[in-house]
Write a structure and sequence with these properties.
77% of the residues lie in helices and 0% in strands. The longest helix is centred in the N-terminal third of the chain and has 26 residues.
Length: 192
């Protein structure tokens, strides 16, 4: 019995995630009531409130789910060349631009930005920072990771919101790669 309930919960959650991404992509976040989300997912409004608390929490959870299902598997391979990882990330965001653009300009902008910064931060390893910048203490390494993640988030946010159509994932990947290469240089301009 418990297994059947768990499957039903997973199905309902997956349906809500898919409905949220689709409806936000089509309509934005402003004119999107909980009832429309629950109807599109064929679940009750009560279930939305029980599982997520409110509409914005559902929308941010849908964004996090999209990142975990698609972006992390595509860009998270630490063995892949940096440009390939950055290009996979840029392609993901370009493919889902209407969704992310609406999330970054609507009522969910603050929690969405925090979620993206957390994502970008998860792609930065302390070992990698120490290899590039030398012997950093833990607090400095965490602060540097937050600075890099926040800066990357700002660049990606601006690209998603303001760049002309069609988005150019190659140009964004090259831009981010130039920045990471620049960060890896010593003050004299020599690679570390």
């Amino acid at each position: 019995m418990q297994d059947r309930q768990d499957r039903r919960v997973r199905r309902s959650r997956a349906a809500l995630m898919a409905a949220a991404v689709r409806l936000v992509s089509e309509r934005g976040t402003t004119a999107l009531p909980v009832g429309d989300l629950s109807d599109a997912a064929d679940v009750s409004r009560q279930l939305v409130y029980l599982q997520f608390g409110d509409r914005d929490a559902l929308l941010v959870a849908a964004a996090t789910d999209l990142v975990e299902r698609e972006l992390i598997p595509e860009a998270g391979d630490e063995g892949a060349p940096p440009r390939a990882r950055m290009l996979a990330m840029a392609r993901h965001f370009a493919r889902h631009r209407p969704f992310y653009r609406a999330m970054l300009t609507g009522s969910c902008a603050f929690p969405m930005t925090r979620a993206l910064n957390k994502l970008f931060g998860s792609l930065i390893t302390m070992t990698g920072l120490r290899e590039v910048f030398g012997g950093l203490d833990d607090a400095t390494a965490r602060d540097l990771a937050a600075l890099i993640a926040g800066g990357t988030g700002t660049i990606v946010n601006d690209w998603l919101i303001d760049a002309d159509d069609p988005l150019d994932p190659d140009a964004l990947a090259d831009r981010l790669l130039r920045l990471s290469t620049t960060l890896a240089r010593t003050p004299g301009g020599r690679p570390r």
